[in-house]
Amino acid sequence: MNLKARLQELFQKTFESTPIISFAPGRINLIGEHTDYQEGFVFPAAVQFGIWVGVQKNQLPYCRLYSMDFEEEFTFDWQSFSPKKGHWSTYVMGFLAQLKQAGYPFAGFDMMIGGDIPVGAGLSSSAALSVSIGTGLSQLFGLKLTLLSISKYAQNSEHQYAGVNCGIMDPYASAFGKKDHALLLDCRSNQHQEITVNLGEYSLLLVNSNVKHSLEDSAYNQRRAACEKSVEILKAEFPEINTLRDLRNPDLNQVEKLLPASLFPKAKHVISECERVQSAADSLQSGDLKSFGKLLNASHQSLSQDYEVSCAELDFLAEKAQNFPGILGSRMMGGGFGGCTINLIETQKISDFQEKIHQLYQEEFGMKPSFISVEISEGARIVS
Ligand code: GAF
């Protein structure tokens, strides 16, 4: 039985009613890392894995939640609640708190949550969770939330309840994803262009390093703050800029002279990564996968050397992949400090590559990597 059918059955058994079921996918990002919170460009796509949320009104003074992953129930008074940080229920209450603040009407409901996003892979399971919750609640209470407002509420939940000052990329990709397309997203206008992903003989393969370093969240916020500090300094010379995205084709020597040595490489990453995203979208559109792959490699170099959000395991995986015949490009994906690399690989070389990496990674780090084949899929929707 598939996950949706299991959720439906368990919901019926637990809450004795039939749920509306929403689905929101996880995401990959082809290129454009750590640019979204500088209103830059990103190039994500939704994947086949995601989060299912079953929901139905219950006419009770409280909401009853059930997580299939944690096999755990949670109940709260829907008229007076405070999100409990660090717990899965936070994402439900966090979303609800924002609906309440915006004046949307809601009442008691039962909700069941299940998902199949590989844990710790950096495929944005928390964004998918919030987007699925928003999609389900919007349908249940007839709120007519737009995909963009669902994305913004999801982003805000991360800021307020998870303490990560992330950009909009992850919930946006989950909400707006389109089968076989990547979204060339401008994180200033919050508008995107759908670009067909036609890889011919090639596939996208993720290699999960299976490491998650604890500094991830604090380092993420520090990087964002470093960008903001750079903008503050650079404004003296370039008063027209609001974010690093506004520095298009700048004289980097001049930028370097204006910024302290600790900030310049970070700013350089954001400026150059925005340019790489545009070039990568052009390469993909014109079918020039070799150039596209080179841009992935350059992105990794910049994230590792300049932005310093990689780690030994990701550098190892990217380097081995970049030197493997049949791979056109490889880079770390997402926030960094663990999670996956994304690889553009000749489909028929996948099993040779997996065997080789398995052996090399185990020899080097004493642990196993895992491999995830991705299919670019549709974004959030009501599935029944
Ligand atoms: C995480 C964040 F949630 C995104 O907003 C983005 O900044 C990404 O890291 C890095 O590109 O996934």
Automatic annotation (TrEMBL):
One of its GO terms (molecular function) is ATP binding. ATP binds at S67, G120, A121, G122, L123, S124, S125, S126. Residues 281-359 form the GHMP kinase C-terminal domain. One of its GO terms (cellular component) is cytosol. The keyword ATP-binding applies. Its EC number is 2.7.1.6. Mg(2+) binds at S126, E158. It is an enzyme of class 2 (transferase). One of its GO terms (biological process) is galactose metabolic process. It is found in: Cytoplasm. Substrate binds at E33, H34, T35, D36, Y220. Keywords: ATP-binding, Carbohydrate metabolism, Cytoplasm, Galactose metabolism, Kinase, Magnesium, Metal-binding, Nucleotide-binding, Transferase. Pathway: Carbohydrate metabolism; galactose metabolism. The active site is at D170. It catalyses: alpha-D-galactose + ATP = alpha-D-galactose 1-phosphate + ADP + H(+). Residues 91-178 form the GHMP kinase N-terminal domain. Signal peptide: none annotated. The record marks R27 as: Transition state stabilizer. Belongs to the GHMP kinase family. GalK subfamily. Catalyzes the transfer of the gamma-phosphate of ATP to D-galactose to form alpha-D-galactose-1-phosphate (Gal-1-P). This is Galactokinase.
